[in-house]
Write a sequence for this structure.
């Protein structure tokens, strides 16, 4: 039986590191798990200027000096070409689009994506990536991702050279849609969408630690996401969407959306890939495919994981991690 596994340092192409004091802990902890992270811009205040991109990068690096950090900025308005060039110069590789009101800190989101087509045309010109939170506001919760796909299809036709990532893909239709579009359209996959369904949020009991956007859905949706991750298709790569919220924000009558997975993500991935007999595809999924898509060098350093059980703490840095209190197989 396999006791040890070597992987290239994992790259997490979608993580929330927050701001202020919390950022220091979350960035440090990410630095222990990943070689590279792409930090999302839905902080308070939002990262939406070249100056803030630069400042955020410096803050993350101060907490985690060995972490490679890619930045994003919020696509909450139109930007000039000069602004976008300055974003790029300061470390941003992607612009993140949040539809209005669909997730944490998206009240400044854009209601009609066509309103920012002028900026999206510039992203294509400058070879910046468009990163999409793909949920349609105002429709039934389980249909939100499916109903967003028309925007992705239109974007792909309108901007044929633009690289687009549909983040945290979570339903059958979205997996099929990404597969059907050209090579420059990819998707990230989280650990929690590989293992959770609605049952884990509202089944036997209400488990706010598993509540996130997009919602984990039906077994067939989880299975479609799993099949994509275990397929070896380079369009699907790892982005944890690790999104910690303080316990009191989760235990609330209007609880915050987000699963805190960074501290457990890689051990769970190994466990799941091992279960499916697909460990040979894990290095590509967790490190190489994302690097290729973002046109950055693949990791040359390795990390070694050992088959040694450990118990996930009930809280880490004030947030309840995925699988809190449970035993994981890999360290
Ligand atoms: C994320 C957060 O808390 O910042 N929440 C989530 O449920 N995934 C935002 C996001 O990526 O939607
Ligand atoms: Zn996210």
């Amino acid at each position: 039986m396999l006791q040890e596994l070597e992987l290239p340092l994992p790259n997490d192409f979608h993580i929330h590191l927050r701001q202020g004091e919390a950022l220091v802990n979350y960035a440090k902890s990410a630095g222990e798990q990943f070689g590279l992270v792409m930090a999302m811009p839905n902080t308070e205040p939002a990262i939406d200027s070249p100056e803030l991109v630069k400042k955020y990068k410096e803050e993350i690096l101060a907490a985690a000096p060995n972490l490679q950090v890619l930045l994003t900025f919020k696509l909450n308005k139109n930007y000039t070409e000069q602004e976008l060039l300055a974003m790029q110069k300061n470390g941003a590789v992607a612009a993140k689009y949040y539809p209005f009101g669909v997730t944490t800190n998206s009240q400044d989101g854009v209601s009609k994506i066509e309103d920012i087509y002028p900026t999206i045309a510039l992203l294509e010109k400058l070879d910046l990536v468009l990163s999409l939170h793909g949920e349609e506001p105002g429709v039934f919760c389980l249909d939100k991702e499916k109903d967003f796909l028309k925007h992705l299809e239109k974007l792909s036709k309108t901007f044929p050279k633009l690289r687009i990532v549909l983040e945290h893909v979570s339903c059958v239709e979205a997996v099929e849609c990404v597969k059907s579009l050209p090579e420059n359209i990819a998707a990230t996959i989280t650990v929690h969408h590989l293992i959770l369904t609605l049952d884990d949020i509202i089944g036997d009991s209400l488990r706010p630690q598993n509540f996130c956007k997009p919602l984990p859905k039906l077994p067939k949706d989880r299975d479609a996401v799993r099949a994509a991750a275990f397929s070896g298709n380079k369009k699907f790569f790892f982005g944890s969407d690790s999104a910690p919220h303080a316990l009191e924000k989760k235990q609330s009558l209007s609880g915050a959306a987000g699963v805190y997975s960074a501290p457990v993500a890689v051990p769970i991935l190994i466990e799941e890939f091992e279960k499916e007999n697909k460990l040979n595809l894990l290095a590509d999924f967790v490190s190489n495919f994302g690097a290729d898509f973002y046109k950055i060098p693949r990791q040359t350093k390795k990390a070694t994981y050992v088959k040694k059980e450990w118990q996930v703490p009930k809280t880490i840095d004030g947030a309840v991690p995925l699988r809190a209190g449970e035993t994981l197989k890999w360290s």
Summary: The two ends are 16 Å apart (CA to CA). DSSP finds twelve helices and eleven strands in the chain. The mean pLDDT is 98. The pocket of N-carbamoyl-L-aspartate (ligand 1) is lined by residues 16, 42, 103-104, 133, 212-213, 241, 243, 257-258 (CB under 6 Å).
